[in-house]
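Let us walk through a complete example step by step. Step one is to write down the protein sequence. Step two is to encode the small molecule, 2-acetamido-2-deoxy-beta-D-glucopyranose, as a SMILES string so that its atoms and bonds are unambiguous. Step three, shown after the inputs, is the structure prediction itself.
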Amino acid sequence: MPLRHSFTTSPTRLFLLLSLAYAALSSPHPLIHPRNHHLLQRRNVVAADQLQDTYDFVVVGGGTAGLALASRLSEDANTTVLVIEAGDTGDAALGTIDVPANAYYQSLLSSSSDWAYPVLAQPNLNNRAIVWPRGKVLGGSSAINGMYSVRPSQIEVDAWVDLVAQEDSNAANNWGWNEFLAGMKKSETFVAPSTSIEQTGNIEFDAASHGSSGPLFASYPGYMPSLVGNWTPSLAALGVPESPDAYSGQTWGSFIATSNINPNNWTRSYSRSAYIDSLPYRANLEIVTNSTVTRLIFGNSTTSGNLTATAVEFATDRTATRSTVNVTKEVLLAAGAIGSPHILMHSGVGPSDVLKSAGVAVVSELPGVGQHLQDHVSTELTFNTTAETAGEIHAAGTEGSVPGGTSAFLSFVNSATAYVNITALFGTSAESFQSNVSSALDSSVATLVPSQDASVIAGYKAIYNVSQTLLNSPLGHVEILLSLTAGDIVAIQLALQRPFSQGYLYINSDDPFNYPLIDPRYLSHSADKSLLREAAKFARQLAQMAPLSTQLTGETAPGSAVQSDADWDNWIAQTIGTEFHPSSTCAMLPLNLGGVVDTNLKVYGLSNVRVVDASIFPIQFAAHLMAPVYGLAEQAANIIRAQYNNPPPSSSNSSSSSAPASSASPSAGSQHKSGASISAAFDMPFMSLFTLAALLCSSLIF
Ligand SMILES: Cc1cc2nc3c(=O)[nH]c(=O)nc-3n(C[C@H](O)[C@H](O)[C@H](O)COP(=O)(O)OP(=O)(O)OC[C@H]3O[C@@H](n4cnc5c(N)ncnc54)[C@H](O)[C@@H]3O)c2cc1C
Ligand SMILES: *[C@@H]1O[C@H](CO)[C@@H](O)[C@H](O)[C@H]1NC(C)=O
Ligand SMILES: *[C@@H]1O[C@H](CO)[C@@H](O)[C@H](O)[C@H]1NC(C)=O
Ligand SMILES: *[C@@H]1O[C@H](CO)[C@@H](O)[C@H](O)[C@H]1NC(C)=O
Ligand SMILES: *[C@@H]1O[C@H](CO)[C@@H](O)[C@H](O)[C@H]1NC(C)=O
Ligand SMILES: *[C@@H]1O[C@H](CO)[C@@H](O)[C@H](O)[C@H]1NC(C)=O
Ligand SMILES: *[C@@H]1O[C@H](CO)[C@@H](O)[C@H](O)[C@H]1NC(C)=O
Ligand SMILES: *[C@@H]1O[C@H](CO)[C@@H](O)[C@H](O)[C@H]1NC(C)=O
Ligand SMILES: *[C@@H]1O[C@H](CO)[C@@H](O)[C@H](O)[C@H]1NC(C)=O
Ligand SMILES: *[C@@H]1O[C@H](CO)[C@@H](O)[C@H](O)[C@H]1NC(C)=O
Ligand SMILES: *[C@@H]1O[C@H](CO)[C@@H](O)[C@H](O)[C@H]1NC(C)=O
Ligand SMILES: *[C@@H]1O[C@H](CO)[C@@H](O)[C@H](O)[C@H]1NC(C)=O
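Step three: the predicted structure of the complex.
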């Protein structure tokens, strides 16, 4: 990631920060609020030595999908659910997590709430070895991410269903567009922007495309820099029309995205606050934190040839004694695109050559585990500006002077978005580009798959075929974003959405506390380089379009020295990083395409283990991944509850009344005003965290 705008910890800055923290504490708004972890504890978080021996369902990973799923499954009071989360509760970091703009100004990246998985040095990134952040805390990545809420397009979801139709001709019953859309809507309550925010940002929306009674908030910030209003008209001037409604299956063109922000008090709305904190006490739901799942334990007998998981093993750290809990119904892996394949491999489920050389006994051979790894990669151009940016206000410490004051200001997160198709990128060469990609299918299959396994190779081919087919569609193949949070500059970010490069992750030891080897093989396919290069040129052109151009006064990066294709390629290799969207490592695909789960999310060869997280999407979407992960979790809960004859009260769409909490409705939230102590505000090692954030802070937070 480019680290352009690191701040220095000058005494003046420290003073400003301390003043800000103090002002926050002493003011009535809940910017830094008293901890309510006693509530959380009274509710569902239990100590590791107080667990029951046995649960119906054990959810592995209390992240984005895991907490949503646990919340829905435990709506059935006759079902016991345990969530095992490797990270802490997050209580000590709530002052950071809850404030949306802290994703930029006081990020949890590189803190103890971040796994910070190292990625192998990438030849196409100048041999840089980047790090993948992932949330390691209740809420998972939804607790540390950029809050963009963007849905995939129907065309993409249809392509996913087509990929699995060979195995299950009824796949659309679970993952058809209407079903998936219903899941995404069920997760959220939409709140329209205020008239002033709507006008300032030039925001278009259709409330009917959103949910109205779900636990998460989908809304807009309480402060909007005026430059955001220039976004959609400038893209329109470049031939990318504004979308009147990007949430009902046509996610292309430009728009101002919704963000998962609670507009009652301008706090982050994420899986913990939405799906767990809002619940009344549920005796049948328990959550244990600081507990890393080390493996699943299988019984010796099989059910129609499939192994049954009987227990889940976990430990607080590498050297601690391992504990187990027994499972009567199912293990639900929700440990994320890295964690879930990692745990399967340590449980003996995966490619046998990999497991054997790591010293793990093979329980069930499954070549696709850890394969088909795909990610969005991203970089940004930066410009001097005469416009007011959020980063500038923050740096000046004048947050309190914006309309709505500091807490409204600190709800601003970037959300100006565009999905740009190949006509906009390649112009008259679009057809030639597509036919080049299309004719490279066989040679790519022969040379670019990081596995010798025939099924994995066939899966690469099938996914490639989908991506090349979708080039010739209105779908965006790159995403363009406006960032106004990185100081006194404007950044235009670009991100590849549907890569032709695929990587893998492997274990290379029998110790589950060692991280896996992660190799996304970024830009191993030259089409990905071409797409990024044209996207970078497009971003430069966009900066020259009015009305945006009237407030940009010069490109600071990469700058005028970068002109030729070779210049762009060099610059891209030096600057690109992750857009934080790894997926597909436990892909829902037929077995003969290197699949890991079937259309009911069940791991092949196992009778009672499902994966429910970003690892199951077989293709990448032109969208950020959080909204589809919530839709997946909602739909998974429907599927699981249907199997155990306990369907949710009303299963289909957002008019469902099964939202877990009455408090999820956007009525004025009760605000805890008193009782804050200075020491509580410093539960989080505030200064050291700030120092870290200063070193690592980047505007590239999605
Ligand atoms: C910095 C950042 C910014 C992002 N910005 C956006 C954005 O703005 N919009 C968007 O849509 N998406 C964004 N994303 C992506 C999005 O947040 C993720 O794709 C999504 O949250 C993944 O959900 P998940 O349930 O698959 O995994 P996670 O939410 O990561 O949950 C996995 C959970 O499993 C736990 N776990 C892992 N291994 C174990 C183990 N062995 N034992 C026990 N627990 C374990 C983890 O600690 C974690 O809590 C961002 C991601 C990051 C990291
Ligand atoms: C789990 O079940 C086994 C028998 O299948 C039993 O021996 C063991 O004690 C149980 N473990 C716990 C923690 O209850
Ligand atoms: C509760 O679950 C048990 C076992 O899972 C089942 O036998 C019983 O019928 C269920 N009761 C209700 C009211 O659903
Ligand atoms: C969990 O681990 C963190 C350190 O990562 C520690 O600060 C915290 O006290 C632990 N919580 C519990 C309940 O043990
Ligand atoms: C399975 O069999 C092995 C030996 O074959 C034994 O050690 C183990 O305890 C058995 N496990 C269960 C759950 O019965
Ligand atoms: C395993 O279970 C699936 C259904 O989930 C079934 O189709 C399959 O035949 C079973 N047996 C084997 C050996 O996979
Ligand atoms: C397609 O390939 C041809 C031959 O290699 C090349 O000349 C042309 O530039 C390519 N077109 C695009 C748009 O990449
Ligand atoms: C590619 O996908 C199309 C449908 O989109 C299908 O007709 C064709 O057979 C596929 N080709 C390959 C090689 O898989
Ligand atoms: C890309 O979008 C433009 C503008 O809507 C449209 O004219 C063009 O046909 C689209 N390209 C493709 C391949 O669909
Ligand atoms: C951008 O602004 C800085 C600081 O004012 C200045 O030094 C620099 O020359 C400007 N760059 C361009 C390309 O305008
Ligand atoms: C949701 O359900 C209601 C009532 O059954 C129906 O009127 C509405 O059309 C449904 N909406 C969607 C998107 O399916
Ligand atoms: C924000 O409001 C919600 C209700 O919408 C409430 O549950 C939550 O505790 C509030 N958060 C803070 C930090 O006050």
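Step four is interpretation. Residues 1-39, 651-697 have pLDDT under 50 and may be disordered.
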